Amino acid sequence: MANTHRIFVTGPTGYIGQRLIPALHAHGYEVVALTREKSRGKLPLTCTPVIGDALDGASYSRFVEGADTFIQLVGVPHPSPAKAAQFRQVDLKAGLEAIRVAGELKLRHFVYVSVAQPAPIMQAYLDVRAECERAIEFSGLPATVLRPWYVLGPGHLWPYLLLPFYKIAEVIPRTRENARRLGLVTIQQMVRALVRIVHEPPAVIQYIDVPEIRRLASAKFV
User: Fold this and answer.
1) Which domains does the chain have, with CATH numbers?
2) Alpha helices in the chain (DSSP H)
3) Which residues pair with 32 in a beta bridge?
4) What are the tens digits of pLDDT across the range 68-114?
5) Spatial strand order in the sheet of 69-72
6) Nearest to 73 by CA among 179, 187, 204
7) pTM here?
8) With left for phi above 0 and alpha for psi between -120 and 50, is residue 73 left, alpha or beta?
């Protein structure tokens, strides 16, 4: 039986968004996707586009009304330490605006893709994600915060070379916890976990780390 829930997605043409939207549609969800006019042609055909600015909640809040779930995916592509200023200008601003809009509309579920913490590198990126996590907690929204470290997929393949080292680290007691928390997930696992999370929204805030992302991705829908 098809779902009738409406999902509002920001960052729909990004690495995760362009793959998540068709998956949500395949499970019967109606997807409304926020985009700029110049990016409209990049959207998956399985969504309803709305024009707005992710950095300005007032430009799109009217389109969020009637949605059950808000999925915040906006972020600077290919994060690196050199992009610290962009993280605050884009990731932080977009995240805080999304949280504000979802809170004002009292949505039943807010989904935010954060990052595994603590971690040894990318401190500016981690700080922005942590700030958004605190804003979600303060908002009181029922929310899911996913904490992947690196998502493998097209254009993001080099960490496959690290997999043997992860396997070794996961069996050594001293390094096991960090190896699991900072483990690698595939884009397919992220998409399947996100669909499952949308299908089973929490009553409060929940945090989904790498082992749980993998578990959700492998679980079958009832």
Assistant:
1) 6-154+185-218 (3.40.50.720)
2) 17-26, 61-64, 84-86, 93-104, 123-139, 163-171, 173-181, 187-199, 210-218
3) 8, 48
4) 999 999 999 888 889 999 999 999 999 999 999 999 999 999 999 99
5) 48-51, 30-35, 6-10, 69-72, 109-113, 143-147, 206-209
6) 187
7) 0.90
8) alpha
